[in-house]
Amino acid sequence: MALDLDIDRIRRLVGEGVRDKVYPGAVWAVGDRSNMVIGTPGVLDPDRPDEPMRHDTVFDVGGLTEILAVWSAVGSLVEDGKLHLDEQLGVFWPEVRGHPLGRVTTRHLLTHTAGGPPLTDLGDLYGTHPRDIRDGVLHEDLRCPPGEAVEYTDRAALVLGFLAEELSGQSLDVLAATRVWQPLGMTRTCYGPLPDEAAARCAPTELDDSTGTRLRGTAHGSQARLLGGVCGSSGVFSVLPDLAAFLRHVLQPGQDGGQPGFGPAWVRESLRIRTGDLSPAGGLFWHPAPGTVAGTDDIWVPDGSTGAGAWLSPQQGRWAVLLTNELYYARDPEPLGHVRDAFRSLAFA
After folding, report:
1. In whole angstroms, what is the distance from residue 176 CA to residue 165 CA?
2. 207-228, pLDDT tens digit by residue?
């Protein structure tokens, strides 16, 4: 059955973002468990106007790393019985025992109720050595007692990435690849920096002051660059077909032929309000899409997703993706935010 969409309005909307220089180009799709509509307006790089966006253009997906790598890896550990959501980290993780983070649970981190510091430049705080950064993040003070307030911070994904590595004995890139990406056939999803051939097919982002060139195949997230390319909050590169495979699995776990580490139980646990009476309401690393009614519209968006947008609705059996390289022009999130909100409204009308 074909998707019931106003495709022309979606095309005009995303195309206007190119015209208005919100982003050089975009790759978008709306799909269900078997159908998909795709659009690819604009160019890969304004300096190379004869090279259009393509459905398989590689993107730095930024905050989607938290879902593609960390949420998935944590889900596999929970379903394997290696991690319990409500056990304090200090009980089983010597590295945080006796520190403020030791009183925090995995559920606190997944709901952003751990009370940790907000977004900060880790290099300014802890220096540039990965060991010093890890120690600083894991031994930091809390702003408030766990469970008292909801405040998004990408440190939650950093901590959970370190935890997943500790419990699995694997680096996060290997764990995500072997437990999630490879089983789902996500052959072009990986952490950077990318090899030259793959980087050439990657949408460039912001200007690197140290080289005077655009970042292309190297993560724009400073945390990932400081930590050698692999961390919980950023660093993953992917393509539309891979993201479609991932979101289809989340909509219908275990019925797509893949055997990733997380299944229906983890999806059900995550796509429900888990913040109680606290506001803003959220699930586990997912929250109701802005402009929707929690518990009624059933449209979810990953926490922390910025330039790369992904949405899904179990109720409608539908998913949507909007990939852009808006950082090519500016870091101001507002213009893209308007496009994303309108895109979501049309995709789930």
Report:
1. 10
2. 888 888 999 999 998 899 999 9
CA distances from 126 to 104, 133, 295 (A): 22, 5, 41
25: left (phi over 0), alpha (psi -120 to 50) or beta: beta
Q: Which two tokens stand for residue 290?
A: 């802005």
Q: Which residues pair with 29 in a beta bridge?
A: 38, 321
Nearest partner of 253 among 265, 237, 241, 242, judged by Cα? 265
Distance in Å from the first CA to the final CA of the chain: 17
Q: Residue 163 corresponds to which tokens in the numbers above?
A: 């935890």
Instruction: Spell out the SS3 assignment of 161-179.
Output: HHHHHHHHCCCHHHHHHHH
- Model-level pTM? 0.95
What residue has token string 């370190």? 162
Residue 188 is encoded by which pair of tokens? 């072009």
What's the rounded Cα separation, in Å, for the pair 179 and 183?
A: 7
pLDDT of residue 257: 56
The per-residue pLDDT for 133 is: 95
In whole angstroms, give the CA distance from residue 103 to residue 108. Answer: 10
Residue 253, number of CB atoms within 10 A of its CB: 18
Q: What percent of the chain has pLDDT over 90?
A: 85
Q: So what's the pLDDT on residue 120? A: 72
Nearest-angstrom CA–CA distance, 181 and 159 = 21
